[in-house]
Model the fold of this input.
Amino acid sequence: MSYNLLKGKRGIITGVLNEQSIAWQVAKRAVEEGAEVLLTNTPMAIRFGTINQLAATINSPVVAADATSVSDLEHLVDTAMEHFGGQLDFVLHSIGMSPNIRKGIGYEALNYDFYAKTLDISAMSYHKLLQTLYKKDALSKGASVVALSYIAGDRAMRGYGDMADAKAMLQSITRNFGIIFAQEKGVRVNTVSQSPTMTTAGQGIEGMTEMIDTIDRISPLGNASATDCADYVITLFSDLTRKITMQTLYSDGGYSSVLPIS
Ligand code: NAI
Done:
């Protein structure tokens, strides 16, 4: 069902790898709500994923950019502004990867080159993206930027490894760039902390299937799906949440507010 919440708005969606990606659902819902979007991912993800399928159905350009590269991000933002003929109204950061987790290396044994990569890809890329948008004055007044986080950024959770540190940093960037964007440009910057979701990134976490089941049982409303998350992000892109900024907001069926014994 469409409410035309994003009618006339234009924005960038990062992180569409395949149909399971949370960003896939956000892009689809944004277009259903009247927005125009530009999709981006790394050259490798574009080649091996199915982003072009989605792009064809929602009539969106696809621009290759590695989010750890400032020059790629500059090219991305320039291309988006040229394509839309002006400033952007929303941006989704939906990017995460940990080489330590991929290789099964626990938090007590981190490889520090991999650790730096985790933080660069999963958190510093958010700062780089925000800094690029800021320098180019690429966001309209009232625009909204959202990044995706996880509860392990607030609470200790074995198995989430160095991604926990990346998510804590992502949430801190949300506050610290958020205040600058709010005061100087009237732009909102938030982080949505999503339930565990079976995506390509999610599958990398050891014991993910059991974890999803356990957390689903503990969450009073059950886990939020990728489409639930997308619906929430759409409200944050819309004008209905004009005064919400610098927050970590939970799309998690209430999980973050209960003790597991409840
Ligand atoms: P996904 O695997 O579909 O998306 C991750 C995306 O990051 C991929 O599209 C990948 O190509 C992209 N990416 C990796 N390195 C990149 C780089 N250097 N430059 C640009 N893009 C790059 O998985 P999912 O789950 O949709 O992940 C999206 C976001 O949601 C991530 O930030 C993830 O940490 C977060 N999240 C996921 C949860 C889950 O359980 N799946 C729960 C809470 C948050």
Observations:
- The chain has a mean pLDDT of 97.
- The beta strands are 10-14, 36-41, 62-64, 88-93, 139-149, 188-194, 248-251.
- The pocket of NAI is lined by residues 14-15, 17, 20-23, 41-42, 45, 66-68, 94-97, 121, 148-150, 194, 196-197, 199-202 (CB under 6 Å).
- Residues 10-249 form a domain with the Rossmann fold fold (CATH 3.40.50.720).
